[in-house]
């Protein structure tokens, strides 16, 4: 019997790292740590660099910028196995294959060129299991950053090697203007023709003005049950894919019942009248599961929900079920275990933990997209600067420059701002002070601003290539009405007129039940998208100050 080739020192180090993660909790997210020198260098830049608004064209990002083909930005695959293998042998083989994958990836990409990505083998194992047992994959992305969260390698693996269908779910469409949603849908459909693309929102009916790129209105998410826009479109895509091989009539009836319940009662009661069977799967139970070639086994359609952290997978699943079965959180990695839910007797949903694929995304953009945990940041100021250069932050935040003299008139738009100045001014605005010296707590203020961006209260939206030149075409596109209907908004021209007439004053009384940018709720379960603000039903005109939770600072 030939002797096994010994592991190299680098492989042994990675192996030890994987074992440590398993001891601490198998599904904990793992990212590479930055050097102290790099952190200090960025802090200095944040204090000195004057912020300048970038051109709108700079927001246009092509898929090849994030996932260049020549860089080999693949994802780890499950190695081949057979039933005669022992469990320990299979685990060893998967571990070795994963280490070889990391080495190959690092050999093609010099240090500092790759974005932060998932290094935990246990999380990748969950992805393998979900893809193997699912008939159709729901790949969920955040409409604000779709190209960041759609790895082409995953698309080609599912449609090419697994021979399965993908439904791309463009989630959180209430955070984007309708023409931009439509432009992204067409761009992605053209890039990846062998998939279905649907739009989705768990909170339809949120107003905004298309005159702005910053849409802090997304926090107006009322607790009106799981009144989602998009489940019917996912169901119709599944009907087209299954072509009558699965009876989906019970699913269609359920969607209709849920819509009626929300429309008549305003809040769908979780009275247990329609129970949902839930199954938890441990990694041990799934290790020797065979990837079956039989689709729709026993007449059941299995939908696998996969995607990056913070794209709203759990919210989509809750909306499909019609009530809360999965807790949601803004913290990346909140969903830690593979679970299945029987939506109806013929439809089963699989929820996979969110995981980050290797790419060449700027770290600042990863943070604003909610991919990298804000709580793990050592230096958040450069990300705040990145955000402010791409959003109209001054009218939204209503800041006073730290160097402003009370004797002189204040015009913040004429003053030079650095990222540090913004954090100092926001700390002063919110009353964030350090414990010992009672100075403005710029670090806490920076984290607060980043969470506003993640939540959608300061909304940065990327654009597909050529969008700025063809914006007029998208604004008059015949399919635009369908997107507006899905978002649940009224006619946007009328709404813009209302906003212009009432600019500078509030025509509605908005209140937040909770201040969502508090630092101590970062890891709270079930708090992600349930905070409520009350709005005047007639005008729905926004007071940005109230939306940002500034009532107490007025």
Mean pLDDT: 77
Low-confidence stretches are 22-28, 208-226, 266-273, 282-288, 332-336, 492-547, 549-554
State the shape. Answer: globular
How many strands, what sense, and barrel or not for the largest sheet?
7 strands, mixed
| Total beta strand runs | 7
Biased composition (Basic residues): 1-27
Organism: Sinocyclocheilus anshuiensis
Keywords: GTP-binding, Nucleotide-binding
Protein name: Guanine nucleotide-binding protein-like 1
Q: Could you please describe the fold and organization of this structure?
A:
Pfam families: MMR_HSR1. Keywords: GTP-binding, Nucleotide-binding. InterPro entries: GNL1-like (IPR043358), GTP-bd (IPR006073), P-loop_NTPase (IPR027417). With 554 residues, this protein is α/β, with parallel strands linked by helices. 37% of the residues lie in helices and 7% in strands. The protein has 20 helices and seven strands. It has a seven-stranded mixed beta sheet with strand order 3-2-1-5-7-6-4, sandwiched between helices. Helix 13 (381-388) crosses helix 15. The N and C termini lie far apart (78 Å).
What attributes does this structure have?
554 residues, alpha/beta, seven-stranded mixed β-sheet, 20 helices, disordered C terminus
Helix and strand topology:
Layout: H1 9-24, H2 36-48, H3 63-66, H4 87-108, H5 121-133, E1 136-142, H6 152-161, E2 165-171, H7 178-191, E3 196-199, H8 231-242, H9 249-265, E4 277-280, H10 283-286, E5 301-307, H11 313-321, E6 339-344, E7 347-351, H12 363-368, H13 381-388, H14 393-397, H15 419-430, H16 442-455, H17 471-475, H18 480-487, H19 492-501, H20 544-547
Parallel strand pairs: 1-2, 1-5, 2-3, 5-7
Antiparallel strand pairs: 4-6, 6-7
Helix pairs in contact: 7-18, 13-15, 13-16, 15-16
């Amino acid at each position: 019997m030939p002797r096994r080739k010994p592991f190299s020192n680098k492989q042994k180090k990675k192996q030890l790292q994987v074992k440590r993660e398993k001891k601490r909790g198998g599904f904990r997210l793992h990212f590479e740590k930055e050097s102290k020198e790099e952190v200090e260098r960025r802090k200095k830049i944040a204090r000195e660099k004057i912020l300048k608004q970038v051109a709108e064209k700079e927001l246009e990002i092509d898929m090849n910028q994030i996932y260049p083909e020549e860089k080999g930005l693949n994802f780890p695959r499950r190695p081949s196995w057979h039933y005669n293998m022992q469990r320990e042998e299979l685990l060893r083989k998967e571990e070795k294959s994963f280490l070889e994958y990391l080495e190959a990836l690092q050999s093609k990409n010099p240090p500092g060129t790759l974005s932060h990505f998932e290094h935990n083998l246990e999380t990748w194992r969950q992805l393998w299991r979900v893809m193997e047992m699912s008939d159709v994959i729901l790949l969920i992305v955040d409409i604000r950053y779709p190209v960041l969260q759609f790895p082409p390698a995953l698309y080609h693996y599912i449609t090419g090697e697994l021979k399965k269908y993908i439904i791309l779910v463009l989630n959180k469409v209430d955070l984007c203007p309708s023409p931009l949603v439509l432009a992204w849908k067409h761009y992605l459909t053209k890039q990846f023709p062998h998939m279905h693309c649907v739009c989705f929102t768990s909170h339809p009916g949120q107003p905004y003005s298309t005159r702005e790129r910053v849409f802090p209105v997304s926090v107006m998410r009322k607790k009106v049950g799981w009144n989602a826009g998009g489940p019917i479109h996912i169901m119709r895509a599944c009907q087209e894919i299954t072509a009558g091989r699965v009876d989906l009539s019970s699913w269609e009836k359920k969607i209709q019942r849920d819509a009626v319940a929300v429309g008549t009662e305003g809040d769908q009661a979780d009275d247990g009248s329609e129970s949902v069977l839930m199954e938890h799967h441990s990694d041990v139970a799934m290790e020797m599961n065979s990837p079956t070639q039989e689709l729709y086994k026993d007449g059941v359609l299995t939908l696998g929900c996969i995607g990056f952290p913070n794209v709203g997978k759990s919210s989509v699943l809750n909306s499909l079920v019609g009530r809360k079965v999965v807790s949601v959180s803004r913290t990346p990695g909140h969903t830690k275990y593979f679970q299945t839910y029987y939506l109806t007797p013929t439809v089963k949903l699989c929820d996979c933990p969110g995981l980050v694929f290797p790419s060449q995304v700027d770290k600042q953009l990863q943070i604003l997209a909610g991919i990298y945990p804000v709580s793990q940041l050592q230096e958040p100021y450069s990300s705040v600067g990145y955000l402010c250069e791409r959003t109209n932050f001054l009218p939204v935040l209503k800041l006073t420059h730290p160097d402003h003299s009370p004797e002189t008139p204040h015009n913040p738009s004429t003053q030079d701002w650095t990222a540090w100045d913004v954090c100092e001014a926001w700390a002063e605005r919110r009353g964030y002070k350090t414990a010992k010296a009672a100075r403005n707590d710029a670090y806490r203020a920076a984290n607060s601003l980043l969470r506003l961006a993640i939540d959608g209260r300061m909304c940065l939206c990327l654009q597909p290539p050529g969008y700025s030149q063809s914006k007029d075409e998208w604004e008059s596109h015949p399919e635009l009405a369908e997107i507006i209907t899905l978002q649940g908004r009224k006619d946007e021209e009328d709404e813009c007129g209302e906003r212009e007439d009432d600019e500078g004053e509030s025509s509605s009384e908005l209140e937040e039940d909770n201040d969502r940018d508090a630092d101590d709720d970062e890891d709270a379960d079930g708090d992600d998208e349930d905070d409520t603000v009350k709005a005047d039903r007639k005008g729905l005109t926004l007071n940005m100050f109230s939306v940002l939770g500034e009532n107490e600072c007025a």
